Automatic annotation (TrEMBL), chain A:
It comes from the Bacteria. It is a multi-pass membrane protein. The keyword Iron does not apply. InterPro entries: BP-dep_ABC_trans_perm, MetI-like, MetI-like_sf. GO terms for molecular function: ATP binding. It comes from Gluconobacter thailandicus NBRC 3257. Keywords: ATP-binding, Cell membrane, Membrane, Nucleotide-binding, Transmembrane, Transmembrane helix, Transport. This is Mannitol/sorbitol ABC transporter ATP-binding protein. PANTHER family: INNER MEMBRANE ABC TRANSPORTER PERMEASE PROTEIN YCJP, MALTOSE TRANSPORT SYSTEM PERMEASE-RELATED. CDD domains: TM_PBP2.
TrEMBL record, chain B:
It is a multi-pass membrane protein. InterPro entries: MetI-like, MetI-like_sf. It comes from Gluconobacter thailandicus NBRC 3257. Gene3D superfamilies: MetI-like (1.10.3720.10). CDD domains: TM_PBP2 (cd06261). This is Mannitol/sorbitol ABC transporter permease. Belongs to the binding-protein-dependent transport system permease family. It is found in: Cell membrane.
């Protein structure tokens, strides 16, 4: 009897688990599917689940030279902002993890609090500063803003990873006459490489998907994919096939990155409060 | 005694040297964050006290608190504040409530659980502009959308969601993005729960509901509070989803504080008014931030 109840519960859990998962994922599935439809089939009523797949929407998206331009912008801005933030954050996290002072705690919490400044609160001055320094609608301008926005998260995440590296290993290196620079580059970095990699991944994901500054600080020259997709909100968005193909291409890399690094993302997104 | 005095400067000096190096390594990041957090803040405060319009050079000079007065007595502002609150509260209830239940569900063992989990958290990785247009066009479009087709299939009249229920629809789209975030964080927290503790409770005859109430929920407390606060920070400034679906309309039906500031400053070029709105947004976010920082601080062992 008990076994029977258990079995029926398990079936219910399986059905519920899969049902909810498929329902939540359905829009993404449908987007991928629609990308392979012709424009006529994409708006057929009722919508078709079975159809003749075609690459015509993808071909059209690729033909528009601007698509590569927007992808290029996204890649350059994301990678640039991530590298810049890591260069600033690695020494800072190293210092706080291995040479803590009585101000370290306060510094970390202060960094966290700077992340809490709502972007819209400083939209006006940042927009005007970018305009006056001719950084409006440039990859450099957007990259700097992305880097600064994510810097606190990156310092925090690196800090939590560095603290897991046993200090005696670093001290042993110092005993052998390693300088601080050697200690950092030749002892710490190889040991903390997985942590640094997942930090970089989180930064790439956040930059890639960043929409607020992308929409407000760029228009055409430096517009990344988030802004490019936004341009489909015009009647052009009614070309469902093209919208879907372009969207699928824009989200695919991040979807894969996200799947790979779920666990580490939790740590970064919660500032180490949930592991 | 003599020896102690002689030897004491050595460790002191090395510690000071270490401190110097530590400071130098930390300095660039701290300096740049200090500038990043203080300069725009100061500028926002300053602009909010000025008559400053980008397209009207005749309007200039010190405005005192008139920007604030104008803003606080503007019905659109009050409406946007209310919309902001509804959006934040609605998405929080859906994502945290649903997230807690789903975290428990996906903690159970079942066939293909790993894949199901991946599917559930996927929407969080979709960029905001894509998820907004995906819902606006492919799902909810009154003629071509899948949901409209489903409603027609069961004999109902399709609803033009974004025209009739703009705020509710934006809330649903945003909740679709943030529910997976809550699941991701809370599932991690559930999994860190000692299985022996769950086993012991089961042995003592605690049913699933009692286990959930007395073991899982207390264990999740901190993770839930972290999710609430992080989501609140992001949800206070929902922008892209509104911008590409309703553009704040019809009227100001789906305008939140972030979109209002944007339209004041960059569509109407009213720098002073936009900045006053920015100051209000900063004050609201700071109230939330105090709680978040305090909660993280409790967990920080330095």
């Amino acid at each position: 009897m008990a076994l029977k109840t258990k079995r029926s519960t398990r079936i219910a859990v399986t059905l519920l688990g899969w049902g909810i998962a498929l329902w939540l994922f359905f829009p993404i599935f449908w987007m991928i599917l629609t990308g392979f439809k012709s424009e006529v089939e994409a708006v057929s009523t009722p919508p078709k689940l079975v159809f003749m797949p075609t690459l015509s929407s993808y071909a059209e998206v690729f033909e528009r030279a601007s698509y590569w331009h927007f992808t290029f912008n996204t890649v350059i801005v994301s990678v640039g902002a991530t590298v810049g933030a890591l260069l600033l954050a690695i020494p800072a996290a190293y210092s706080m993890a291995f040479m803590p002072s009585k101000r370290t705690r306060g510094t970390l919490l202060w960094m966290l609090s700077t992340r809490m400044l709502p972007p819209v609160g400083v939209l006006v001055p940042i927009y005007l500063l970018a305009r006056n320094t001719h950084l409006l609608d440039t990859r450099t301008g957007l990259g700097i803003v992305d880097m600064l926005t994510n810097l606190p998260i990156i310092v925090w995440m690196l800090f939590t990873f560095f603290r897991e590296v046993p200090a005696p290993i670093l001290e042993a290196g110092r005993m052998d006459g390693a300088t601080r620079w050697q200690e950092m580059t030749m002892v710490l970095l190889p040991l903390a490489l997985p942590g640094i990699a997942s930090t970089a991944l989180l930064s790439l994901i956040l930059c890639w998907n960043e929409a607020f500054w992308s929409l407000n600080l760029t228009s055409s020259n430096a517009a990344p994919l988030t802004a490019f997709i936004a341009s489909f909100s015009s009647p052009e968005g009614l070309f469902f096939g093209k919208l879907s193909a372009a969207s699928t291409l824009a989200v695919a890399p991040i979807l894969v990155f996200g799947w790979i690094s779920q666990k580490q993302l939790v740590r970064g997104l919660t500032f180490g409060a949930v592991k | 005694m003599q020896a102690v005095v002689e030897h004491s400067p050595a460790p002191g000096a090395s510690a000071r040297k270490g401190k110097g190096a530590g400071f130098l390594l930390l300095f660039p990041a701290v300096l740049i964050l200090l500038v990043w957090s203080l300069v725009p803040l100061g500028m926002t405060l300053w602009y909010s006290l000025l008559n400053y319009n980008l397209v009207d050079p005749t309007l200039h000079g010190f405005a005192g608190f008139s920007n604030y007065w104008y803003l606080l007595t503007d019905p659109d502002f009050l409406h946007s504040l209310l919309n902001t609150f509804i959006l934040v509260a609605g998405v929080l209830v859906i994502s945290v409530g649903g997230g807690t239940l789903l975290a428990v569900l996906y903690d159970q063992e079942f066939f293909g659980r790993g894949i199901a989990r991946v599917l559930v958290i996927s929407p969080f990785f979709i960029m905001p502009t894509v998820s907004a247009l995906l819902w606006k066009n492919l799902m909810l479009h009154p003629i071509y959308g899948v949901y409209s087709a489903m409603m027609r299939a069961v004999g109902l009249t399709p609803i033009d969601w974004l025209a009739q229920f703009p705020l509710l629809t934006v809330m649903m789209i945003v909740a679709w993005e943030w529910l997976p975030f809550a699941v991701l964080i809370l599932l991690t927290a559930v999994q860190s729960l000692d299985s022996e503790q769950k086993e012991a409770a089961r042995m003592d005859g605690a049913g699933p509901i009692a286990q959930f109430r007395h073991i899982i929920l207390p264990h999740l407390g901190r993770a839930i509070s972290v999710v609430v606060m992080i989501e609140t920070i992001y949800l206070l400034t929902i922008f892209a989803e509104i911008s590409v679906t309703t553009a704040g309309g019809p009227g100001v039906a789906s305008t939140n504080l972030a979109y209002l500031i944007y339209s004041r400053a960059l569509l109407q070029f009213d720098v002073g008014g936009g900045s006053a709105g920015g100051v209000v947004a900063i004050i609201i976010a700071n109230i939330v931030a105090v709680f978040l920082v305090r909660s993280v601080a409790r967990n920080l062992e330095v």
